[in-house]
Design the sequence.
């Protein structure tokens, strides 16, 4: 659906995006993460045609964004962090204006606008001035303009910033709904949001891609192994004897459990080996019921901090220039 190949963006002597390459497959929700100044917003603005690149290419559904911008942009719906709204319009007037800009056939415009407003749940606010809407409903209007025309790819930059908890849950549910028919790229500083919504995660630092995988695989790669915690009802010696028969286990620790007659077990295996089912049947045969079994994965926050540890926390030259370009747009 999207191919970014060897993308470079320089501001003078400073490299904001440094030979960045990745692919985005159809029908997935991608989380795009990076510290302030990492080049994340610059990359998204290049992908959507808002900025040019120093070198490299971006292919959207087969179209080069630099050589065939009109065809490529038809495949993209974009919601910037600050939605591009006209406060003196109503949502209905604004979406009619957007439909004209997107060259949606006039015969299809009103039905499509009605469907999109229903999808983002703003139908009853269609004739109210946008400036009189709450932050959450302004965000929904911004989402509606991104969805209008049903582009194959929807790119959302911090879509839940400034929303209350109820609104955040509603927007997350809407993003999941959109993924049934669209490919979604989501940028956010809220790790729980990325964990809750995204199928795949890309982490960028210093303009380079430092990680790209599912949340589960990233955790395994960072740990270098599978780690499992179990609570098993049974005698400690028996449980240990059974587990030691498994050559796949590289590290085993057995402790007294929090409940009487139970033991707490910590197991490590190579990252490519999943031993859970085998242990389940072994303990069933020994009549030692497993009361709890869970993978001891690193949190996304831990992974993010480790991969971007050397990225300066203070806003960099890159971030300042990104902000300047965003405001110019």
Sequence:
């Amino acid at each position: 659906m999207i191919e970014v190949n060897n993308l470079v963006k320089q501001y003078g002597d400073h490299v904001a995006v440094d030979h960045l390459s990745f692919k985005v497959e159809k029908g997935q929700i991608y989380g795009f993460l990076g510290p302030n100044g990492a080049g994340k917003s610059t990359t998204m603005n290049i992908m959507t045609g808002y900025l040019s690149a120093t070198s490299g290419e971006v292919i959207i559904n087969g179209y080069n964004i630099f050589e065939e911008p009109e065809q490529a942009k038809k495949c993209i719906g974009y919601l910037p962090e600050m939605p591009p709204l006209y406060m003196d319009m109503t949502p209905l007037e604004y979406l009619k204006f957007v439909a004209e800009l997107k060259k949606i056939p006039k015969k299809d415009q009103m039905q499509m606008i009605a469907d999109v407003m229903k999808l983002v749940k703003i139908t009853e606010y269609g004739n109210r001035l946008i400036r009189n809407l709450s932050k959450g409903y302004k965000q929904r209007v911004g989402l509606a303009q991104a969805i209008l025309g049903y582009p194959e790819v929807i790119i959302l930059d911090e879509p839940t910033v400034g929303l209350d908890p109820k609104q955040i849950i509603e927007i997350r549910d809407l993003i999941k709904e959109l993924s049934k028919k669209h490919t979604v790229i989501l940028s956010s500083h809220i790790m729980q949001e990325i964990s809750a919504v995204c199928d795949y995660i890309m982490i960028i630092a210093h303009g380079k891609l430092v990680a790209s995988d599912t949340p589960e695989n990233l955790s395994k790669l960072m740990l270098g192994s599978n780690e499992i915690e179990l609570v098993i009802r049974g005698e400690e010696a028996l449980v240990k004897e059974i587990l030691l028969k498994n050559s796949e286990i590289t590290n085993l620790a057995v402790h007294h459990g929090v409940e009487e007659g139970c033991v707490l077990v910590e197991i490590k295996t190579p990252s490519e080996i999943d031993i859970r089912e085998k242990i389940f049947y072994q303990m069933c045969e020994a009549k030692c019921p497993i009361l709890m079994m869970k993978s001891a994965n690193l949190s996304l926050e831990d992974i993010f901090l480790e991969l971007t540890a050397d990225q300066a926390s203070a806003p960099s030259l890159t971030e300042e220039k990104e902000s300047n370009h965003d405001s110019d747009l």
Observations:
- The chain is about 35% helix and 25% strand.
- The two ends are 26 Å apart (CA to CA).
